Amino acid sequence: MKKRLVIAIDGPAGAGKSTISKEIAKKLDIEYIDTGAMYRALTLKVLEKGVNIDDIDKILDILESSSIYFKNNHIYLDGINVDKEIRENRISKYVSDIAKIKEVRSEMVKLQRQLSKESNVIVDGRDIGTVVLPHANFKFFITASPEVRADRRYKELLLKGEKVTYEQVLKEIKTRDKIDSTREVAPLKKAKDAYEIDTTNMTIQEVVNKIINIIEGR
């Protein structure tokens, strides 16, 4: 019997993790779990309920009473597809503040590990190779310069009709990087046994091909 395939993809905001992971999932016919989307879904619900992002007890109550799951590469919050809503800039602005809460991460990691047990998977986030799935078959750390990541995010938001400036997005990217890499629990960092890929001067397809070649031993 073949060993179950578990791929961990980590990296900072805007590096292209989600897009790359989705493409790999399609090509290898495996399940994709976007852990960042899970934190975004929780952030969406917290904001919609008007809860202060510093009120840990209320945020934990919301998490405990929420249903977050994936189906056919779509994320559902309490049974509703929230693919579009969780990508709004208001979510990006606060998701790192929610994700750095120790108790929130602890509960999310349990859920992520459970989801990852069900099939061959590719999982992306900030702490997959280091904390969530330290025994993954393959680990990759996807990165790019803050300026390139901000430019990608800026263009993405413009296409969605959001009114933002490049300078605003770059500032938010740098702020998220600082929060993610300095938080007390499960900070963003490259696993010792992860392949690092700088996507600054690469296309999505080039990155996808490189990762698949490594996985297939080419």
From TrEMBL:
Q: Which GO terms describe its molecular function?
A: ATP binding; CMP kinase activity; dCMP kinase activity
Compartments (UniProt record): Cytoplasm
Q: Which residues form the Cytidylate kinase domain?
A: 7-216
* Keyword hit for Transit peptide: no
An example Gene Ontology biological process: nucleobase-containing small molecule interconversion
**Keywords for this entry?**
ATP-binding, Cytoplasm, Kinase, Nucleotide-binding, Transferase
Please give an example of a GO cellular component term from this record.
cytosol
Q: Which residues hold ATP? A: 11-19
Q: What is its EC number?
A: 2.7.4.25
Q: Which domain of life is it from?
A: Bacteria
What InterPro entries is this protein classified in? Cytidylate_kin, Cytidylate_kinase_dom, P-loop_NTPase
- Top-level EC class as recorded in UniProt: transferase
What is the reaction catalyzed?
CMP + ATP = CDP + ADP; dCMP + ATP = dCDP + ADP
Membership in a protein family: Belongs to the cytidylate kinase family. Type 1 subfamily.
The family database entries (HAMAP family) matched by this protein are listed as:
Cytidyl_kinase_type1
Quote the protein name from its UniProt record: Cytidylate kinase
Gene of this entry: cmk
